[in-house]
Amino acid sequence: MKKSVSLLLAGAMCAGLLAGCSSSSTSGGASAAASGSTAPSSVVSGEAGSKSIEKLSIAFVPSREPEEIITATEPLKEMLTAELAGLGYDVGEVEITVGTSYEAVGEALSAGTADVGLIPGGTYVLYDDGCDVLLTATRDGLSIDSDSAKDWNDNAPTEATTNQVTSYRALMIAGPSEKGQALAAKVNAGEDLTWEDVSGVNWSVMGSSSPAGYIYPSLWLQEQFDKNITELPHAVQSDSYGSAFARLASGQIDVLCTYADARRDYADKWTSEYAMTNSIWEDTAVIGVTPAIYNDTISVSKSSPIMDDDFKAALSQAFINIGDTEEGKAVISIYSHQGYQPAQASDYDSERAAQKMIQELNSAA
Fold it and tell me: Which of 27, 147, 214, 352 has most Cβ atoms within 10 angstroms of its Cβ?
């Protein structure tokens, strides 16, 4: 998922799937989508030991145009049906809809009117009282993944890898200004930065719903200095990462907050559009690294009557299998997913800390 996508505030986060409750072949009830509620399904035994689910209703959150989502994910119906059949589950129908909001997905999972949700980490954390995480989406990794800012500088430039990862980092990057270089020199000498160091320079941040450009850097400031991003006396909000890097190059700002591979994205503009003589890797340095920002989840309702351990295992394997095929990757690429890996609730502890911090900031406002 693109790094500038919000993971923590529900209205700005990446899309997820909603699976409505399926109905028992004996109940005659219809499944519930994100915006509706009817009788939930149960699993019944079918022929040759298989188990039957009349309907599995899947709804995406509306982070893109609904018709675009519906069209792009149409092949998922047949893929899931086939994979689950091979794992012992006869699904009569897979229905795909688009939910009305991120909150509708979380609320449907909590209420049990949705069985499955492919939802952002932030949405999962907000509603984890009512849902369990099964899988985390994967993305292409980077050659560096360290908590140490000095490691990022010693091993620059950052390169893409074919390794699939379930998270990414946000970085605080110092530029070529005198103050920026002074911070970089201190970090590269193995010295700890002080609040006086970071509060005395000009910062560029993104909007308050940006994980890499605001939320996680604020979490980093809180962990390092018991401060948050609103307490930086010289911070300006940029409307894009491009404008932030332009300001960094010109010396208007000394430090910016961004996603880990942003310098790879702006390396060419650094020496062309921004007219810098040196490469971006020579002119900039990392002064801070945030905890991992975990990718989207596939989560399931704790209240759904079909979500026993066996079906959770089958559903997890079905999505993993789909993500391992070229046809499956083409479908899930609508949200930049490359595949899926098993997840656990503790993977999202940093999300919980960030959510708590944002809630406290909002309460104090």
Answer: 214
